[in-house]
Amino acid sequence: MKQQAQQGVEQTVLMLFRKDLRLDDNPALLAALQAAKNVVPVFIWSPEEEGQFQPGRCSRWWLKQSLACLSAQLAALGSRLIIRRGTACVEVLLQLLRETGAGAVFFNHLFDPISLVRDHDMKQQLTAAGALCRSYNADLLYEPWTVLDDNGEPFTTFASFWQQLQAMPRQPPVPWPAPAALPAVDSALHSEVLDALPFFSSREQEAAAGQLSSKWRPGCEGGAVRMQQFIQEQLQHFSHRKANVDRCCCSRLSPWIRVGSVSVRHIYYRVRAQQAEWAAAGVDHDSSCRDFMQQLAYREYSRYLSFHFPFMHERPLLSHLRCVPWNLDQHAFKAWKMGMTGYPLIDAAMKQLWSTGWMHNRLRVVCGVFAVKYLLLPWQWGLKHYWDQLLDADLESDALGWQYLSGCMVDAPPFGQLMDIPAEAASFDPDGEFVRRWLPVLARMPTQHVHAPWTAPQEVLDAADVELGFNYPRPIVTQEDAAARLTSAAAVIEASLQQQEQQQQGQQQQEDIPQQQQQQSASKQPYRPPTEPMQSYSRAHHTAAAAAAEHMRQQHSNVELASMPQQQQQRAPTAAAAAAPAAAAAAAAAEDEAPGIQAAAAAGPEAPGHEQQQQQDDMWQQQALQNDVHLRQRQQQHRHQQLQQRLWHQQQRQHRPSSHKRRRQGSQELQQQQQQQQRSNAGGSAAAADAAGVARAAAAAAGDGGAGGHEYGYDYAAESGSDCSEQNSNAPPAETMMTACSGIMQQQQDGSECSGGLEEEQQQQQQQQQQQQQQQQQQLEEGDHVLQQPLPQAELQPQEQQQQQQDGMPGLRQEQQQQDSTMQAALQPDQLQEEQQQHEEQQEQQDWEQEQRQQAWMTQLFGS
């Protein structure tokens, strides 16, 4: 059978559809059509293989609708989709090979840990049965084994990964069009009826049909319409409106991308084409295009980490965070799931999730932070709940998001950093419309209290018909209690980190210790609470996933190198050579962790015996201590750079006053000089000249203050990672100014297509700041202009003559009163200065908070 399959022309092959439910840009389908005359499209429904990560209600509804659309497209081209039901995919494939006489199976890669083990085992069994097994990349722009650092190791921060993506020597493969026709499938071949498959119960079917059908249009056609609508109407506003959860410009393409109805490469080239079209028309929307491309890169990064660290959906990437004293409170977990926490933004977001199966990305982050850091619930619980409820539930993206917001990554915020939920709510939903839509009980609450009803006076609650504890819950936890609990947990983590460092230092001294005592010391595991309701996979499964990933990397690296032209092989020392150190390290780690990788892969998610499990746990404990050193070192370096940067800017601010202080000082000197001028009765022209000179000095002081304010604003921007080297000659060294966000764009190569967007955005921000400062300067100069005018002659005469002249000239008296009122307003500028000072402080605070949020939550973490 294998020899017949290699001849290719007269053979029948199977095309296995999984998370690639489309005909265009499907490399496996294209290869199958080129390799054989007859192609049988197959879909196998085997949710038992997914273990605890079986698709949720909304995901199952979306999958069923997408399969119906794919089946209709295949029928239009003369083929049909063969649907089978089974508990193991490989068993169904072997049965189909016997029924059709096919000699090969074609499918596309999946990079989640469960699929890595299953696909590796499937390839081995199909090869043993005499059939060819070929897999291709239809899910990513670049395969994970092609993006490595100079030492051949995977990147552990998104900044370095994003920088490497933009510096790749070649563009992603151009998407292929859909075939014009397909060979017919034997009508005698049995296929299950799609509606007869047990996707969900009758109640779930009714609920899904009523709530989701009116809001979404699954399938390739619906995805193409949504992509076209987003690119033409909303992409240009993406960077400006993406922070508003009520009127956002999110693409909402993630449900189509998850099942493969829309190709990521198709989206990539459509956005590039639109960006080029805007550039040709003289319209600048590069910042929006760059931000959206970064969202696609986050999705790539989630698959990248899942491939290189296949345990990240269950264990933190930083091993010392395994000992967090989690609060295993099922009642708090249920209140969070049902949207009954007493925090309106959290409750509204969770109710939206229940109703529509979708949430804004920022809401996913805020709700996740609330669960992990306010309620101290295990992040694995939140991951599982998102998986069960989201339409675009994606194991790799969700694992990345929960690892990040829990502080389990090198470039993540510290675990002990607490987010101010009401402040975030006021920023993301400033008018409170989102909360009022999903929480009708708070529809009559005023905007200033809608995000924190517990702060409203009783008369306001009565007017809004809100009774805390009756028709809306009180806060399940206060911010003070949450901060105290989080600080205590952070102290436990710090103690665990110090203990691990001591153990690492003491490993060199264990050679003289007896072997039995070493095993007893290694068997002591740190405190890890159970992660119910989510059961863990065994260590053997994680090891098998690592081995499968390494096998895939070696296989495809060799194939790609062999398929390159001779010149490209000479120019690429490269992929195979760079991957060798990482491949050897992964193979050694897998060999040390669990001998017998094939047996572990065959065992699947079932745990081995007690003694074998204990030995594997011991070996994993020692290996984790060794492998975690470089991650913690990179995290410490990252934190040290941020600390140096903040200290430098703090010292700079201490050595110079702020802009409003310098303007106030100049105005006070001006006021004192003007009062002295009024007291003098002689030398009017000299007094006026003195006033003019003082006014010019005050204007110069105000100008200096404006420049100082400009500089002062750049202090906050620099703390957030913006480039200040051109505006501030006293900028710190480049290594202290580099942060996670700025490092993405500052180190781009000249040939990158996204290299100019950040500089143009910074120039626009600088121009806006300069315009605001010029307006403020004009306001001050208008007040100074009144003071520079010479005093009226009536004021220089004796008081009696002045009164006689005013009594005889009413018009002159009215004009004099107007001048006096103008002079009084100019001589008493305290109120104007205070208002201006408050405005400047608020503006600086808002800019600083915005930059901090962009740096801390750069990962829009769950889907695109």
TrEMBL record:
GO terms for cellular component: cytoplasm; nucleus. Residues 814-825 have a biased composition (Polar residues). Keywords: FAD, Flavoprotein. Its cofactor is FAD. SUPFAM superfamilies: Cryptochrome/photolyase FAD-binding domain, Cryptochrome/photolyase, N-terminal domain. Signal peptide: none annotated. InterPro entries: Crypto/Photolyase_FAD-like_sf, Crypto/Photolyase_N_sf, Cryptochr/Photolyase_FAD-bd, Cryptochrome/DNA_photolyase_1, DNA_photolyase_N, Rossmann-like_a/b/a_fold. Residues 632-641, 652-665 have a biased composition (Basic residues). GO terms for molecular function: deoxyribodipyrimidine photo-lyase activity; DNA binding; FAD binding. Binds 1 FAD per subunit. Residues 502-520, 565-577, 589-626, 642-651, 667-688, 763-779, 787-806 have a biased composition (Low complexity). Residues 11-141 form the Photolyase/cryptochrome alpha/beta domain. Residues 502-577, 589-688, 746-864 are annotated as: Disordered. The record marks 326, 379, 402 as: Electron transfer via tryptophanyl radical. FAD binds at residues 292, 392-394. GO terms for biological process: circadian regulation of gene expression; entrainment of circadian clock by photoperiod. Belongs to the DNA photolyase class-1 family. This is Photolyase/cryptochrome alpha/beta domain-containing protein.
